[in-house]
Design goal:
The longest helix is centred in the C-terminal third of the chain and has 24 residues. Strands 1, 2, 8, 9, 10, 11, 20 and 21 form an 8-stranded mixed beta sheet that branches. The chain contains 11 helices and 21 strands. The chain has about 350 residues and is of the alpha+beta class. It has a domain of about 200 residues: FAD/NAD(P)-binding domain (3-Layer(bba) Sandwich), CATH 3.50.50.
């Protein structure tokens, strides 16, 4: 059967839509398969680092939100801050980001089909998904990717699992930084996402309700005490997901489907954008095996820094010295923050 399109993309979230935009710009015919019609929400910190914002602008995507000037690590009575050197990032409600991406994809003439990619067959010449033939398939179907599992690419991960939960509050942001509040068993991430909206995400290895976790941050809880909840609590996890490799014949994994270490450094969107560009380059060159090395290059900084920080802060005694260390060594803290703020790719 002759391929109908150059590229099928399974998953219409930010990773899949960015892949489709890169493909269209590369002159490839592309079709997105996504079963959901509504804008997709997700439990995430919603802070776009400067590099991620620049990558979105390169695709013609400019979501509304709130400027972010840097990162602040917070503990009772003390705080360490680092400013972004290459310009501001932006706090963006996940639904706003997705809606803006969908508008740009539609304007680019990319077809989005309401269906779920399930039956995948491939040979030397192409991939067939539910009767549709393409030269290649990008699986961008999320953290717990069914396609990754069906292709035998899932790699079980041992160790302690971490989980995330997020809720929004209707109040004016009190800061233009992403605040990371450290407690014994959890971190709370405060992100201004609009002039009247703040998102608060909690990450922890301990399974508790959102409100129980928030009780570990009395100063933050006091700030939120009179604010009305503006969204339901959403959860995600286990966050650590691994793949044996990022390609299987003519199928390439992009975004969270390709593997994910942790949300601690807030690079999820930046990684998805970098991977989507790399995957399209491999498809356009008809060299899918190139993508594995490119994926490793694109994600190396994130994997090393994030995995190192997760390991370093897992012992409870070490968690208590994170903020004091950042205050004592501000150049090191600033260097780490701005390493993560750079463009991915």
């Amino acid at each position: 059967m002759t391929p109908t399109v150059d590229l099928l993309v399974a998953g219409g979230g930010p990773a899949g839509l960015a892949t489709a935009l890169h493909a269209a710009r590369a002159g490839l015919s592309v079709r997105v398969l996504e079963p959901r019609t509504a804008v997709i929400d997700k439990a995430c910190g919603e802070g776009l680092m400067p590099g991620a914002l620049a990558a979105l602008h390169d695709l013609g995507v400019d979501p509304s939100g709130h400027p972010i000037s840097g990162i602040a690590y917070c503990a009772p009575g003390r705080q360490a801050t680092a400013a972004f050197r290459e310009g501001p990032g932006r706090g963006v409600r996940r639904t706003v980001l997705h809606a803006t991406l969908r508008d740009v994809v539609e304007a680019a003439g990319v077809e989005v089909v309401q269906t779920k990619a399930e039956a995948v067959e491939q040979d030397d010449d192409g991939v067939t998904v539910d009767g549709v033939r393409a030269r290649y398939l990008v699986a961008a179907d999320g953290l717990h990717s069914p396609l990754r599992r069906s292709l035998g690419l899932d790699r079980p991960h041992g160790g302690t699992a971490r989980y995330g939960q997020r809720r929004h509050y209707a109040l004016a942001p009190w800061t233009d930084r992403v605040e990371v509040h450290w407690a014994r068993d959890a971190e709370a991430y405060v992100t201004p996402v609009a002039d009247d909206l703040v998102g608060v995400a909690v990450l922890s290895t301990t399974r508790r309700s959102y409100d129980d976790h928030l009780a570990a941050f009395p100063g933050l809880r006091a700030r939120l005490a009179d604010a009305e909840a503006a969204s339901d609590v959403r959860g995600a996890g286990p966050l650590r997901q691994s793949a044996r490799r990022r390609t299987a014949g003519r199928v390439l994994l992009v975004g969270d489907a390709a593997g994910y270490v942790d949300a601690l450094t807030g690079e999820g969107v930046a990684l998805a954008l970098g991977q989507s560009a790399a995957a399209v380059r491999a498809v356009a060159a008809d060299r899918p095996d190139d993508y594995e090395a490119e994926w490793r290059r694109v994600t190396r900084r994130y994997r090393w820094l994030t995995a190192g920080l997760v390991v370093a802060t897992t012992p409870r005694p070490l968690r208590s010295v994170i903020v004091p260390a950042a205050r004592v060594l501000p150049p090191v803290f600033s260097l780490a923050v701005n390493a993560l703020a750079r463009p991915v790719g």
